[in-house]
Amino acid sequence: QLVQSGAEFKKAGESLKISCEGSGYSFTSYWIIWVRQMPGKGLEWVGMIYPGDSDIRYSPSFQGQVTISADNSISTAYLQWSSLKASDTAMYSCVRLSSGRFDPWGQGTLVTVSS
Amino acid sequence: QSVLTQPPSASGTPGQRVTISCSGSSSNIGRNTVHWYQQFPGTAPKLLISGNNQRPSGVPDRFSGSKSGTSASLAISGLQSEDEADYHCATWDDSLKGPVFGGGTKLTVL
Question: Is the pLDDT of residue B42 over 90?
Fold first, then answer.
């Protein structure tokens, strides 16, 4: 399963790092994908990481806006911002890429940024 | 603007059959399998259909999926009130080299 860190309430300009801990499987053997869901909207691919060799790919829409990383010693992937904007307010979820499908999902981390 | 196109809403009465469409292109649905997810407010998406038409263990056989060319569909037969949720389609995009999703369809059971 994937367990994410709790909700965050931040101000514009602040930095933030949220986490996604994997358990019950070989963390280094599967891609972890980050997905954004803005209020009332659909799902958007943010980026992904293969912990086994730290291969990281970003959606063109999010390149340069966020940083993805992982710490294999604690089976945890991260999504971070150096300077949040109000438009970053959304639910962010991690999900495992497994045999071509996206499953399981973390429970989501709600990020609220006030201006 | 989502890469995959879904109708924003769908509705039906209990017992009816409802279908939700998902339209893509040759770089995504045309080359890869489609997955469907069910999402209730405030919760994470749950895998409903994988590989175009495979139901994970525990998913009722009222749910079925199909794919033809660059489009896919989710069908729900014998509609029940607990089916009221958002439904998302997803697949891999070979050009983007990443996953793509539909905008989601809100299903209302009248």
Answer: no
